């Protein structure tokens, strides 16, 4: 049985249908939802299903938030242009957890927007994330979100030097998550769940009406230290 069911979704600056978000969170019994490009209507729908956490909707592609089933303080991680968000899930408030788990919600700058500016900005964002990770070597951590990076790109490669891709234990290659429109075929896998100290039990990519990104839905549990266990460490 899983300890956490986590979802990450880029809401395409409010185009994802609020009813579809609410239905997905409710029907799939999501515990933690990380949102990028979150707008007010999507935040309202998420909060109706997951009442805790913190949502900061905006209409300029910078809206972010983490919605939680149980209480958890959500704080910003200061990064250039767009902050990441962090929360600690504590066993005292999360009955299914035996140890604390930190969750980071991340949205890296897209590399195709003003390329002469966005590439240095992405590097500075990654510098900030690496500083956070290095300063807080917590045993159980999840980093989820739209990294605007396929596994072949430098940003992803930098992060997996410190964290492990949660899809690494899958027997099949994970599906792609982004396409050039809500109904378009998915062309690139740029939405990721990385981490350490957790075991991946299942991984699913789910289309959400209105968004150009599919949601990533994963079941995780605290890593078993017995030999042969596949874990995010």
Notes on the structure:
This protein is an alpha+beta fold and 233 residues long. It has one domain: 4-Layer Sandwich (Deoxyribonuclease I, Chain A). Helix content is 20%, strand content 30%. The chain has helices at 18-27, 40-49, 115-135, 154-159; strands spanning 4-10, 32-36, 52-56, 64-68, 74-77, 84-89, 101-107, 141-146, 164-165, 191-196, 198-206, 215-222. It is globular and about 45 Å long. It starts with a strand and ends in an 11-residue tail after the last strand. The relative contact order is 0.18.
CATH architecture tag:
4-Layer Sandwich
CATH topology: Deoxyribonuclease I, Chain A
The CATH superfamily label reads Endonuclease/exonuclease/phosphatase
Strand element count:
12
Individual helix count: 4
Brief description of this entry?
The protein is of the alpha+beta class and 233 residues long. The protein has helices spanning 18-27, 40-49, 115-135, 154-159, and strands at 4-10, 32-36, 52-56, 64-68, 74-77, 84-89, 101-107, 141-146, 164-165, 191-196, 198-206, 215-222. The strands form 2 sheets. The chain has a 6-stranded mixed sheet with strand order 3-4-2-1-12-11, covered by helices on one side.
